[in-house]
From TrEMBL:
<feature type="domain" description="CRISPR type III-associated protein">
    <location>
        <begin position="13"/>
        <end position="223"/>
    </location>
</feature>
<keyword id="KW-0378">Hydrolase</keyword>
<keyword id="KW-0051">Antiviral defense</keyword>
<dbReference type="InterPro" id="IPR052216">
    <property type="entry name" value="CRISPR_Csm3_endoribonuclease"/>
</dbReference>
<dbReference type="GO" id="GO:0004519">
    <property type="term" value="F:endonuclease activity"/>
</dbReference>
<comment type="similarity">
    <text>Belongs to the CRISPR-associated Csm3 family.</text>
</comment>
<protein>
    <recommendedName>
        <fullName>CRISPR system Cms endoribonuclease Csm3</fullName>
    </recommendedName>
</protein>
<dbReference type="Pfam" id="PF03787">
    <property type="entry name" value="RAMPs"/>
</dbReference>
<keyword id="KW-0694">RNA-binding</keyword>
<dbReference type="GO" id="GO:0003723">
    <property type="term" value="F:RNA binding"/>
</dbReference>
<keyword id="KW-0255">Endonuclease</keyword>
<dbReference type="InterPro" id="IPR005537">
    <property type="entry name" value="RAMP_III_fam"/>
</dbReference>
<dbReference type="InterPro" id="IPR013412">
    <property type="entry name" value="CRISPR-assoc_RAMP_Csm3"/>
</dbReference>
<dbReference type="GO" id="GO:0051607">
    <property type="term" value="P:defense response to virus"/>
</dbReference>
<keyword id="KW-0540">Nuclease</keyword>
<dbReference type="GO" id="GO:0016787">
    <property type="term" value="F:hydrolase activity"/>
</dbReference>
Length: 245
């Protein structure tokens, strides 16, 4: 088995409803925001961690292929021989990896290397400029309250402050995908291409869910936009000018 191609997928994410991906805040300020977004420590510009993107895409892939029960709600791994695994589950771990979870004693599992690496998503310069011109900040503050159902009054300690990246902002990210090849195994090679095409469709699922915190309350809706809507990827290695989708 060897790497046949390394493919690069370039996308942007347009924020449709305010986006909150939480970051640590060790400093407590009087009147400060309760739940802040994660930011670049050098520029203070919000970003979307690649781990958040990969985790969300994998979660959606597992739900839409009926594999959630395989891991009892957790990101699963394949025990024993991979050939004994359900085909949907095998494709998921082929794309996203099959490392053994920390603390698990069972060594009877097949290790499958992940095909995909997803970068952090960074706010575009145009969005940075627009937000600073219009708001003087890269974020907005949303207030949320919980209501006591019997009294009809605010409960739970009063309003909560949620920091969000406003609607209209755009982020860009890259995914690098390795396609493997076996010279004497046509079925394996066909499954590799099928898995890659499935991964492209899993990215599209972000259009129908939400990223980050509070998605059930309307936060985090995004729109996936391909850098090239016709050719959804380019071949990064071996070097070629060919694009395909």
């Amino acid at each position: 088995m060897q790497i046949k191609e390394i493919r690069k997928i370039e996308c942007s994410l347009k924020v449709i409803t305010g986006l909150h991906i939480g970051g640590g805040n060790d400093e407590i300020k009087i009147g400060g925001v309760d739940n802040v977004v994660i930011r670049d420590p050098l520029t203070s510009i919000p970003y979307i961690p690649g781990s958040s993107l990969k985790g969300k895409i994998r979660s959606l892939a597992e739900w839409t292929t009926g594999c959630v029960d395989t891991g009892e709600g957790n990101a699963f791994y394949i025990k024993g021989k991979a050939s004994d695994a359900p085909s949907n589950a095998l494709q998921i771990v082929k794309i996203f990896g099959n490392g053994k979870p920390d603390g698990l004693e069972d060594d009877n599992h097949t290790v499958l290397q992940t095909r995909v690496a997803i970068s952090d998503a960074f706010m575009t310069p145009e969005s940075q400029k627009l937000l600073l011109e219009k708001l003087g900040s890269y974020t907005e503050t949303k207030y949320e309250v919980s209501i006591n159902r019997l009294q009809g009054k605010v409960g739970g300690g009063g309003p909560r402050q949620i920091e969000r990246v406003p609607a209209g902002a755009e982020f860009t990210f890259e995914a690098i995908y390795k396609v493997f090849h076996k010279s004497d195994d046509a079925a394996f090679n066909s499954a590799e291409e099928t898995a890659f095409q499935s991964f492209l469709e899993y990215i599209e699922l972000l259009n129908h869910d939400g990223l980050g915190g509070g998605s059930s309350r309307g936060n985090g809706r995004v729109e996936v936009q391909w850098a090239d809507s016709q050719a959804r990827y380019s071949v990064a290695w071996p070097k070629t000018d060919q694009k395909d989708g």
